[in-house]
Amino acid sequence: MSAVVTWVPPVENGGLIKAYRVSYSPVSSTEPSANITLPATAQRANLTGLKDDTRYLVSVSALTSLGTEESSPLIFFTTEPLPLAVNATAQSPTSALVNWTSPASLSVSSYDVQFSRVGDNSSSTVNTKEQSVLLRGLFPNSTYNITVTPITNGTRGRPGYTTVITAKVFFLSNVSNKTATSAVVTWQPPVMDVGLVTGYRVSYRLVSSTDPSTNLTLPATALGVNLTGLKDDTGYLVSVSALTSLGTEE
């Protein structure tokens, strides 16, 4: 944690300025102040190693050639609290659970949870007083950016960030009625909402082959296909993909 202190040279001083001394410490501390000595040309200092969510007092003194020390009035400031620690876990192809922890020093009224799918130009926001929320209506197999912002008496605090990838949609398929040169592949529609199914693609190839798969495209009403022209006593790999109106392939 850090803060920058700036100043202007005194309008009147008791001699030529040789250096500046910046002194700072937590208001509640009984320890001696930390001191930084800077050249006469300096007009700013970067205070580092500060504690989060802590009130500090600062003074700037001009050290002169006459041995005098002209000090500024005390300045008070409070460092920011640590950002929220946010985590998200996919619960299904269309939902994700987001939870977070808030610094104990914060007295939070509520939280804004903003989420957007990577590649989209729009986002959605939900407000909650809890420290977790279940996001619903997400797209399957998609990456979402999530921002959680604490709100205290109408003032927005330091947000926390995370990402989550929703689960893929799985549906059942089966191979039956196998003969020496054919097999019937059947399936059920996706069990989760992935948009309107516009068709299915059935891909198959020899297990031992490096050639591209053979692809069959079928209408959305199809729930099975008969694969013919197969080789006898041969292993095959088969996959079924649902083509959707969202442009996805599950």
UniProtKB/TrEMBL annotation:
UniProt keyword Repeat, yes or no = yes
Question: Which keywords does this Swiss-Prot/TrEMBL entry list?
Answer: Repeat
Q: List all membrane-crossing ranges.
A: none
Q: Where is the Fibronectin type-III domain?
A: 1-82, 83-167, 168-250
Under the heading InterPro entries, the entry gives: ECM_Regulatory_Proteins, FN3_dom, FN3_sf, Ig-like_fold
Q: What is this protein called?
A: Fibronectin type-III domain-containing protein
What is the species of this protein?
Lepisosteus oculatus (Spotted gar)
